[in-house]
Amino acid sequence: MAAERFTITVSGHGAGTGYAHERLLVALERAQGFGHLRDLPRRLPVGCRRGGCGVCRIRVEGGEYRSDPMSRAHISAEEEASGVVLACCIYPLSDLSLRLEPPVTVKANGRVAAL
Amino acid sequence: MAISGVLRPGFIQIRVLDMPAAVEHYTKRVGLHQVTEGPDGRVYLKAADEFDHHSIVLRRADHAGVDMMAFKCLEDADLDRFEKRIADYGYAVDHVKAGDQPGLGRRIGFTIASGHRIELFAQSEQSDPMPRVHNPDVWEHEPHGMAARRFDHALLYGPDIERNLDFFTKVLDFKCAERVDMPDGLLAIWLTCGMKAHDLAFVKHPEPNKLHHVSFDLENWGAVGHAADIITRYDISIDIGPTRHGITRGQTIYFFDPSGNRDEVFAGGYTYYPDLPTRTWDETQIGKGIFYYERQLNDAFLSVVT
Ligand code: FES
Ligand SMILES: [Fe+2]
To answer: What are the tens digits of pLDDT across the range B136-146?
Structure first.
């Protein structure tokens, strides 16, 4: 059976392909490598690709996905529930659309500070 | 005994999001061995070429990063001597009882200007696997994975590293082997307590108490190449390398553990003696200092930490 393949759209900047078994950030890196993402407000933020450093925050605007654990120092439980996630910790289950979010630090008191 | 007082990095305790994934990474891929798991769930690891009980401690948490780094001292009385000097410097010193970590004696702990917790200890039981001492082979257990030989050093990020430099050199008798000075001030320091080019390094960073990487010693450049093959074969997240540092001259790969903590495998590096001058780098050559072949920093070097 062919791997499940989906269209990943970065709102206003283009689209690439993603796979159900593949971290979304890796799909975005590939899309950037093929020149499919245009005029991003800043360079695609790629760090640890494993949910620890928090640089790859995005907001999912539509579509289904599943998630790995991600650092609570960078994504609060409320944010995760509302679709603000680390791109390296989610895997698409359908076509997805998203936009990049600036990285932040979630303080112990729940306040959020720019990284 | 020419080297006394603080001898070397003893252990580092890091936070992981997924314990089974972390244990698999550090044992099967990096090539460490699990010594034991504590009653509170912390997992204790070592390299087969180390005698001491453990050198890496994993603690499950909801965010990645470093809890503390501990240095081994030559004798128990060193702990009392350093406690007085640290307290006189103005840092509060606390005490951790023997047995808090299996196999380890008492420790003293304190927080430095960059926000990191540093500890000192002098007593450690030995644990298997370890080298034989009579008619030893080059290894007892055939090396596996990346064949890490020891926990070598860490690079930590935080503010006020000028004060860290002052503290480590004046109070703990470290030497500064290399430093980077930018037009707006000190950016980074490489500190040694023995004869390696570094045992601990700091880079200036606005947020306190951050981890840049934990480094493991490999035998040579061939072993670094083999580590690179493992990184690709097992789809381990890569940062940069294989390459070389101009600073320390170490041959290196930066990669990430399954919780996003950066690891390094490191071979070589020059021999340091306490009478050697501090090597200095400026803004124009910092790229070569960090990544000798690329000759420029990558995006992640100054911004990606846990
Ligand atoms: S790249 Fe580090 S959290 Fe996603
Ligand atoms: Fe290093």
So the answer is: 999 998 999 99
Q: Which residue has the higher pLDDT, A39 or B236?
A: B236
| Chain A interface, best mutation among B59, B237, B257, by max A CB count within 10 A | B237
Examine the domain organization and report whether B208 and B262 are in the same domain: yes
ipTM given for this complex: 0.91
Those residues with Cβ within 8 angstroms of residue B61's Cβ, 6 or more apart along the chain or in another chain: B15, B16, B17
Do the beta carbons of residue B51 and residue B152 sit within 8 Å?
no
> What's the pLDDT tens digit per position in B196-236?
999 999 999 999 999 999 999 999 999 999 999 999 999 99
Q: Please tell me the distance from the alpha carbon of residue B15 to that of residue B101, in angstroms, as a whole number.
A: 15
* A30–chain B nearest CA distance, Å: 14
Structure tokens at B90: 């103005």
Range of B158's domain? 150-303
- Comparing CA positions, the residue from B25, B3, B52 lying closest to residue B265 is B25
Residue B285 shares a structural domain with residue B170: yes
Instruction: State the average pLDDT for chain A.
Output: 91
The range of the structural domain enclosing residue A48 comes to 5-114
B144 domain residue, yes or no: no
CA distance readout (Å), B95 to A107, B55, B105, B112, B118: 28, 20, 11, 16, 12
Residue from the list A52, A105, A115 with its beta carbon closest to the beta carbon of B260: A52
- DSSP assignment string, B145-211: TT---EEEEEEEEES-HHHHHHHHHHTS--EEEEEEEETTEEEEEEEESSSBS-SEEEEE-SSSSEE
Angle among Cα B287, B292, B297 to the nearest 5 degrees reads 30
CATH number at residue B24: 3.10.180.10
Query: Which residues of chain A lie closer than 8 angstroms to B261, CB-CB?
Result: 48, 52
CATH of the domain at A63: 3.10.20.30
Q: A47 to chain B: which residues are within 8 Å by CB?
A: 260, 300, 303-304
- Is residue B100 domain-shared with residue B157, that is, in the same domain? no
- The total of structural domains in chain A comes to 1
> Does some domain include residue B129?
no
The tokens of B59 are what? Answer: 């603690």
Question: What is the β-pairing status of strands B117-121 and B65-73?
Answer: parallel
